[in-house]
Amino acid sequence: MGILMILKKNIITRKTFDEVMLPIYHPASFIPVKGLGSRIWDQEGRDYIDFASGIAVTALGHCHPDLIKIITKQSCMIWHTSNLFTNEPALRLAKKLVDTTFAERVFFANSGAEANEAAFKLSRYYSIKRFSNKKTKIIAFKQSFHGRTLFTVSVGGQKKYSNNFGPKVPDILHVNFNDLNAVQSVVDKNTCAIVVELIQGEGGVRPANFQFIKGLRDICNKYNALLIFDEVQSGMGRTGKLFAYEHYKIIPDILTTAKALGGGFPISAMLTTNKISELVEIGIHGTTYGGNPLACAIAEKVFDIVNNKNFLQKVIDKGHFFFKILYKINKKLKIFQEIRGKGLLIGAVLKPKYIIKIHDILKEVSKGVVVLSAGNKVIRFAPSLLITKEEIEEGLERFFQLTKEFISR
Questions:
Q1: Which of 84, 159, 216, 279 has the fewest beta carbons under 10 Å from its own?
Q2: Spatial separation of the C-alpha atoms in residues 21 and 28, rounded to whole Å
């Protein structure tokens, strides 16, 4: 009896979360314990098709064999050095990012929020040094999301993330997304930066239109402001290009990326130009873990796999395939008023009558497939970029059957 009691005490369940974790999340009712490719299994051995990939993070799926080899090899060499040293994996990765993008300089951190924090600080630092200590205004967009630090939630355009923490970082304005007139009405000589997601993720998977992005570039040029692209979610192949700005052929001054960069291992990067970096002085910013050799070795392998024309074309093709099946499903279920996105970042906007049921729908669907929400009315799909068409069909069939069952009750 004593041994049984000990065994029961040591069993980890979903209830354990409620007992020991800070209640800032409300995780699913099951605990994933194994993943392979685009499939995960819970403690009971049930399998799920993963259309979330850890919120667009595990871009190569779970337990990719090449990443296992790299993490094993690098873990036998050196894991961490801090910013007292540089290291070979970081320099190789930085050089590849510079060689394939607009960028000339790279800063590594650990999360999208940290990359954005660095970008916002750098934009103000540069503008103050180059122009005036009054040039600190940042223009951002309603429903945007840039992270959870105090600076990044202040720049993000969603009050639910930024309220209740006391005074926000000042000199930040929010205007409507895809509305160039709104930007022109608030920009002035004291604007230091405009920051925009090329596809708003948490804001509902809303792509920016070309004229809007082109207009932002022109405005920044006119007012000596920096254009910052937040590609934390849209970067690293998610839209069928290495970075989404390539679709627009508009060059930013700063770009941030994270999520898929490490394929599941925490790493982020801020990319910028010599024009900006030449004003930087040693010690103005930093991070202990950022650019550590273990993270950079893994990210370099992810980069090598993703930065391939055939790979990226397959992302586009699978995105079209995903859209096609979703449209067929919607003809039968009639629950979506719009399906939008690019590549394998897809948002299905619920009709008004189903919006209040979104969490119930997601809960029901989670019996067989993992999907996300984006705001309070959009179901978001962000599967592994290596997902097969067979897995897309299987996952969407599960989604269809479970959703059909729910709405027919």
A1: 84
A2: 14
Note the pLDDT of residue 281. 93
Chunked in runs of 10, what are the mean pLDDT values of the chain (409 residues)?
46 93 92 97 96 97 98 96 94 98 98 98 98 97 96 94 92 98 98 98 96 98 98 98 98 98 98 97 94 97 98 98 98 97 98 93 94 94 98 98 92
Query: In this predicted model, what pLDDT tens digit does every residue of 242-274 receive, in sequence order?
Result: 999 999 999 999 999 999 999 999 999 999 999
Query: Per the domain annotation, does 5 fall within a domain?
Result: no
First-residue to last-residue Cα distance in the chain: 45
pTM score, whole prediction? 0.95
Residue from 162, 172, 148, 311 nearest 232 by CA? 148
Residue list for the binding site for N(2)-acetyl-L-ornithine:
148, 287
Name the binding residues: 112-113, 145, 148, 230-233, 287-288
Task: Quickly tell me which residue has 């392998």 as its tokens.
Answer: 301
- Read off the amino acid at residue 302: V
Residues 244 and 382 in one domain: no
Same domain for 314 and 378: yes
Quick: pLDDT tens for 145-168.
Answer: 999 999 999 999 899 999 999 999
Domain boundary (306, 340, 369) is at 306
Q: Which helix (H) or strand (E) holds 108?
A: strand 105-109
How far is the CA of 14 from the CAs of 11, 26, 361, in angstroms? 10, 10, 20
Give the pLDDT confidence score for residue 9 in this predicted structure. 52
With contact defined as beta carbons under 8 Å apart, do 381 and 36 qualify?
no
Q: What is the CATH number of the domain that holds 16?
A: 3.90.1150.10
Q: How far lies 195's CA from each of 83, 123, 198, 298, in Å?
A: 28, 10, 10, 28
4 belongs to a structural domain = no
Pairwise CA distance, residues 272 & 228, whole Å: 9
As for how many domains the chain has, the answer is 2
Range of the domain at 154: 66-306
CA distance 395 to 2: 44
- Identify the bridge partners of residue 338 per DSSP, sorted by sequence position: 349
Report d(CA 80, CA 292) in Å as an integer.
Answer: 5
Residues of the binding site for pyridoxal 5'-phosphate: 112-113, 145, 230-233, 288
Sheet strand arrangement including 369-370: 32-36, 39-42, 47-50, 369-370
